[in-house]
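HUMAN:
Could you generate one sequence with tokenized structure?
ASSISTANT:
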Amino acid sequence: MIDSGVDARNPQLQGAVQPGPDQLDGGNSTLDCVGHGTAVAGIIAARPYQNSQFRGLAPAATILALRVTEQIEGDNGTLTGRRGTPAGLATAIRDAVARRARVINLSLVSYADEPQVRAAVKFAQDNDVVLVAAVGNDAEQGNRTPYPAAYDGVIGVGSIAPDGRRVPSSQLGPYVDLVAPGAQIVTTATPSGWTTVDGTSFAAPFVSAAAALLRQYHPEFTATQVAAQLRATADGGQAGDGYGAGVLNPYRALTERTGASPNPQSRNLAQPAKNPNTSSQAAATHTALTWALTGLAAVVLMSFLAVIIPKGRRRNWRPGLRDLPPAPEPPPDRSLPAFGPRP
């Protein structure tokens, strides 16, 4: 995760954070002066804690924290804090790949196409890494093209409100691949407790967490297949309206087989690897179950014949219908017509 750092002192992030380089000040990326990265990390990987009902979407994931910025956007759209540099972002992406990250969350936006960042993104894609990026909150201030979300192969994420509507500030364009919750989001704060956040920065980690779950559940999926699976299982997409393929649906992504899925012959996920110590027990169980079902079928058949044969003899095997009581008169129809004006 490339952001403002992660404060691992939060009880729900203890044991979830692997520190990495700090491209702003050097040293350790567990420093988070603005709380942005800590909030993003909680959405992905917050662990269960005491009586808290909050936890991340992928609570067993490990966050590799890489610090590149501490710039945040205020309520009026103004930016505060140090922005960082394209060189620092490019270095962090390459460092994440070197440290074997399988999903990189980029809850940050630049409105300039920087060649070194573009090259680092391509390097990550060539190494089979899923990249997820926020599309930005500039829709009402010009809707400028956001990078790295606009790069080919990066999953660009917009935000929706609790009512399912696109947040007005969430940007619109061909770079929006999915939308996810991005308003009134409760997540981890620094140094402890919780906070409420808004913006596409906090929609992106929902998609990153779903991608991490997919990579765990389907280790044979390539990064391209993970992205295709997330899009194919999204809900309610409408072309050109800022929703991309639709609303992220992690459950469908994990359980449905789509065109993005590899050949089912390549790996049978429903069958665990055979254990030589249990093969004889499995064979015995199968044999016992087969005999039990055979005996049950015989009992059902004999019971059926015991009822049918005497009746057939009484009728000399002629077909007949059971005498049924006359049907009751239907009640008067007081319902309204299904369509048309009310009488």
Remarks:
- The two ends are 63 Å apart (CA to CA).
- The CA atoms of residues 106 and 335 lie 57 Å apart.
- Helices lie at 36-45, 86-98, 115-126, 204-217, 223-232, 250-255, 279-314.
